[in-house]
Amino acid sequence: MSATPAITADGLQKRYGAVQAVDGVSLEIRTGEFFGLLGPNGAGKTTTLEILEGLRKPDAGRARVLGEPPWPRNPRLLPRIGVQLQASAFFDRLTAREQLAAFAQLYGVGPRRVEEMLARVGLGEFGGTLAERLSGGQAQRLSIACALVHEPELVFLDEPTTGLDPQARRNLWDLLREINADGRTVVLTTHYLDEAEILCDRVAVMDHGRILRTGAPAALVRALDAPTRITVPAGALAPGVLAEARAELDGRVEITEDEVSLVFSTRDPAPVLALLTEHGALHGLEARGGTLEDVFLDLTGREYRE
Fold first, then answer.
1. Any idea where the ABC transporter domain is (predicted)?
2. In a domain, 21, yes or no
């Protein structure tokens, strides 16, 4: 991975009426990096991407993409970037192959590359299928193929796995890893925190148009110092033993129990594990440390957003 930035942004701002969609966003994304932009609905992620892609003019601030200003719409950048929008729309009554060929022709790319890309994204046998008849996962793969057919250096992906079933998501992850392994810089927005934690070298968490925290997912999780959650089946400890444990561990361990699980939340798991071992209650034990989701909720809150 090169230390040279693929993207720099300094003080980007964008307002829509009374709504400050982007409020002083500054970030740097390295060449070859897999970078995630995370945030709740309305955080400003898509508007930030659209500014970087040259689709929207910022009200203030400065951006450079591959060393070039993205606005005014920069024809020197167009062959060097690929964009997969949040909502993809294909031409009516065209097959997957015809859709991809239409995009390829815009960049002067020949039919051989079209066939290579169909195979690359796992659509080789579906090239003759009308785009509207593709499954959700297949349509997303076609959308990404359209963004990649001209072999761009930098790829923007706006929530590419939204609405996909778990198998389709995992298959798409493999494709995204391959794209990045080719040396391309990938910028991803997603609401799936496990996805960002697995795929991204670094992430930025934003809300209300501002970047709140940036770093490698593992580093952000360590900095949060979230408690370890140790879970065993409900009833694993006799009521008397559990009552004694509550008294002995009070202040150090939070203990909750429902009809399914007995959960110990603590930053010092050793006494809990010793207790469970002593009483033969290790069957079905699960232990989970902090995750990127914990970081996200700590920074942005837990209230529901439309």
1. 7-233
2. yes
